[in-house]
Structure formats: C-alpha cells, structure tokens
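Q: I have 95 residues here and want to know how they pack in 3D. Can you give me a structure?
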Amino acid sequence: MDKPLCKGDAMHGHANIHPFIHHPGTGMPSIHVELFAGRTLEQKRALALALTEATVRTLGGSADSVDVIFRDVDRHDWATGGELWSDKAAAAAKP
C-alpha cells in the first residue's frame, strides 16, 4: 500500500499501517505498524487486538493467523514534507 491507513498529527502521534499477505494458502495478513516511539505496552496490546479482530471480522479466518508487528520510530528518524517530526514538535513548543 502506498498510503497509510492511519495518520495523525504531531500532538497525537503518527502511524502508518501496512498490511502484507504472508500466510500461504490462507490469505491472512501480517500487519506492520510504524508509529512514533513512546506508546505503552497496554496501548500496543489494545491496538493489536483491535486490528486482529477487525481483520478476522472483515476477511474471515482465525485470529491465530493474523500477525501484528510494531516498529517504533523516533521523531528524528521520520520526516513528512521534508521536515523532521522532531523539528515540528520543537517549533510547536516555541511561544
């Protein structure tokens, strides 16, 4: 997928969710979630469960065949529109 399924602003975070099919014969996805570092384990557990439930509800199959992989990215390693998110956060914090 070229476009992220979920996109937020600097205050609420930013996440790209890219589904990849990888289970031969089942068509069930591996869902890769890239998001700003700092989410809690509880938040990741809740998102993994929600994504898994939505995938099973939409595509069928079993929850055991859905993988969710989280990749935390520091704001200084993510740029949008040619500007690092760390710079956007610093600019927003200035009076």
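Q: Anything worth noting?
A: Strands lie at 15-21, 29-36, 67-73, 79-80, 83-84. Residues 1-12 have pLDDT under 50 and may be disordered.
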